[in-house]
Amino acid sequence: MATEKRELKQHGVKGVYYGGSWLDIEDCDKTFSNPTENCSTCNHKTTCPRSRSRNASLDKTDYLYDICIVGAGCIGAAVARELSKYQVSVLWVEAADDVSQGATKGNSGIVHAGYDDKPGSNHAKFCWPGNQMFPALDKELRFGYQLNGSLVLAYSEEDKKHLEELKQRGETNGVQNLRIIDQKELREREPYVNPEAIAALYSPDAGNVIPYEFTIALAENAVDNGVELRIRRQVNAIEKTNDNCLKITLDHWEPKEYVDTTTQQSNTNAKLILIFIFLAIAVQKMSTHPFFYSGLIDDVNMLWTDTKTYYCIFTGIVLPVIVLLAPLPGGGASAVKNVIQTANAILNQTMGAAGSGTNVATDSMLVGGSGSKNIMGGVSVGQEIITAKYVINCAGGFSDEIAKMVGDESFQIKPRLGDYLLLNRNQGYLASHTLFPCPDPVLGKGVLVQTTLWGNLILGPTARDMYKPEARDMSPSSVQEYILSKCKRLVPSFDPKETFHAFAGARAKSSRGDWIIEVCQTCPQMIHVAGIDSPGLAGSPAIALEVVRLLQEEAGFKDMAKNPNFQPNRAPIITPKSGMRGLKMGPIGKNDVADPQSLSESEREKKMAANVICKCEKVTELEVVRAMQRSLPIDSSQGIRKRTRAGMGHCQGDPENYGCEARVRAIIARENGVPVEEVGGRPWPATSTLTQRWIDDGEKSDLEKRMEG
């Protein structure tokens, strides 16, 4: 067994993964700073309107779109970007409070090669072609892609026979470069792997991404190129119109905390307007008073002999005072003297940050998980009705319900829950490749061990079918024991006490057992992209190409001219760093840009680029602001967390450590020009199997015991 830790390259630390390979920090500037290669995301200086992107589709002023995409996971995002290459108007709607809030957020991030897929299936048809598109995609969108390769381990001669079958299946699917390696080469590649493993199937073309960062990159680029995104829009109905279009009814919801706060603001504004009206009436009435126009200035007694005097007193003094003193419905909102302190106070409430969730039920996970209307305590604020010539159903776990709206009951979504544990970066050296056991014929690829792009060791997932009570009702401790014991079989030496986060995702498995990518049989104006379970992330760019083909060749949308202004490139949000060089940390307020307008743009950016907002991940104020000024709406620390990693480190935003979540919320409030009470927080406990957001020694010891079974 190897005793020395090998060097671990971590995305953003002294370099980045770019197009599959490592790029040293010295080479990043010349690769990323060419302004002709950067798209319009770099030029925005303001934030988006709430709950929608800044761009309207081709400056449309009516409610008719060529295409409406339902669902903003990695599939919907890939389709949106592909359609932005054409001169078509596209409305993209998402039920949750951000893109990538469903299954895309809760998965391994593996770009599979496709050797495990059944030949002839849609899985097999699109996985390998999609896999091959990732290096070029990353060079355009710069989301970070590592070509790390995968290994399927064999522990017996019977397992080795299975590896041969997998290799043959992969070659049938067109997968290249597969080979079976012996124990010696396996140990050279993975010195910390279980010594009982005697061989492995090696696929050098497998890679990994951070799935939500990949999706955000696709989404930003799609919107930059003309797609209009609206979040917090739940599709309630779809009806056919007489002119062969589809009328879509959307429920626009917002978190209750936001609605309550804006109601208070609206009432305050209404008070001021009412006072102004009363004063204007009083002034107008006084202008007709004889005291002013007759020249009898010395006759003060005349004031009290005219009823107009009392009218003016009543409208100009009494009524404004009554309005001013009247209580606001629902109680007044407290003044924010210090947004950081206020954000910390919100964070420390019993239920966590404002807008936080509780354990997320599977039904909610199918429509946005911890960002769904139910979990966020959403309140309907309006109904929107739009018309589209075509609808692309990318609604994930809700796609069967979308199909039913047009009379299609040909498939059902049977969610399969996958649970994960995430370990600190000091465990990342234990795996260079993605490590799998031999796949289960029913449950799939099995529990894996992998080092993420950012250097954390990820363990999981489970495969819990939600229609099976024994799987659905597993206790958190049983889930953890299952993951830890299975992963110990792959890499025995990881330390479970280094666990600091847990999460889950619901895979949208279909009753047909394969991906559904087809024109709807009951409504030719709808295309289903449904039941996209693993390896859907890998297949997503190839699936998007197929959707365009279906639109043109089978659905009848012939008039799809290329967009001559399509800009394929996107600048990264996160700046790679080398230690603490050029960075400053300190107590809240010391390095913050309290009044951005008091500095020149260059001075402001220089100060923000040095101000560390998240100590664990070394996220700067400038990175947070740049994320805010991109093309997608952000109004919560969770949105910033997914884009900059602020709050994703070891301390998980612990207020007693550095208070990064409160700092982030203060910046969001400042940039959006809203009270900090309107800024959403990170949901907790959401889908976590841990009992505490900030894990203590007792829970760490429990995890160690569960690893031993």
Could you characterize the architecture of this molecule?
The protein has 20 helices and 23 strands. Strands 3, 4, 10, 11, 12, 13, 20 and 21 form an eight-stranded mixed beta sheet that branches. The chain is globular, with a radius of gyration of 29 Å. α2 (74-83) runs parallel beside α6, α2 (74-83) packs across α15 and α14 packs across α20 (697-707). Among the domains are: 264-337; 341-361 and 575-629 and 636-704, no CATH class. It is an alpha+beta fold and 709 residues long. A hairpin with a 5-residue loop joins β11 and β12. Residues 694-709 have a biased composition (Basic and acidic residues). This is L-2-hydroxyglutarate dehydrogenase, mitochondrial. The chain crosses the membrane at residues 272-297, 309-328. InterPro entries: BFD-like_2Fe2S-bd_dom, BFD-like_2Fe2S-bd_dom_sf, FAD-dep_OxRdtase, FAD/NAD-bd_sf, G3P_Oxidase/Oxidoreductase.
